[in-house]
Write a structure and sequence with these properties.
This protein is an alpha+beta fold. It is built from five helices and nine strands. Helix content is 23%, strand content 28%. The structure holds coenzyme A. Coenzyme A binds next to strand 4, helix 4 and helix 5.
């Protein structure tokens, strides 16, 4: 097996990723949430995992313009056949290190309550869930966070505890 290389996202990656993103998210329509602008304007904090020329994972993140000590992860995806190998963790750790070097002290992201894999993954990576009186199967949710019927689970991780991730 070849070595997986983590490199910055490039505009040319757009078509490769956009063509698989709905499939990687189990058929959920995600592509509209990933316009080309992320592949152009957020490259210094966004990464792809490449194995033998094939993209097997990607992370799109950025430093908040409003809160410069906060980093935000918009998308993280790993090829369905390559899950459980540590690629998601590897991409996140790369991002955490980059974000910390930019002065970020926390990382945040959101996911849909239906995405149980994402919730389990983020918990395992040391993210905490923003508490709420509204819960689905015990998971606190922000009702209508991204619009009507678009509830979200909100995650935060402190980057000054990076060495205690595992
Ligand atoms: C969520 C996702 C990125 C995880 O990627 P991955 O490469 O399989 O994750 P890793 O192998 O790096 O796992 C990291 C840790 O999380 C745990 N984990 C990952 N998926 C898990 C799951 N579904 N249930 C429980 N634990 C899980 C692993 O056991 C591992 O723990 P360890 O490092 O302590 O042994 C991947 O499942 C995916 O792409 N899902 C579809 C897209 C998505 O939902 N993205 C997140 C929202 S933007």
């Amino acid at each position: 097996m070849t070595e997986v290389v983590i490199r910055h996202l490039e505009p040319d990656d757009y078509h490769s990723i956009i063509s698989v993103v709905d499939e990687w998210w189990g058929g959920r329509p995600m592509a509209a949430m990933l316009p080309k602008l992320f592949f152009v304007h957020f490259r210094s904090t966004s990464f792809t995992a490449v194995d033998d020329g094939q993209i097997v994972g990607f992370l799109i993140g950025f430093v908040s313009q409003t809160f410069p000590d906060q980093a935000y992860i918009h998308f993280l995806g790993v090829h369905p056949a390559r899950r459980g190998e540590g690629l998601g963790r590897h991409l996140y750790e790369h991002f955490f290190t980059t974000a910390a070097s930019h002065g970020c002290r926390t990382a945040q992201c959101v996911t849909a309550p239906v995405n149980r894999d994402s919730i389990a993954f983020h918990r395992r990576l040391g993210f905490s869930l923003l508490d709420s009186d509204d819960k689905v199967d015990g998971v606190p949710i922000a009702v209508g966070y991204d619009g009507e019927s678009q509830d979200r689970v909100i995650f935060t991780k402190h980057l000054d505890t990076l060495d205690t991730v595992r």
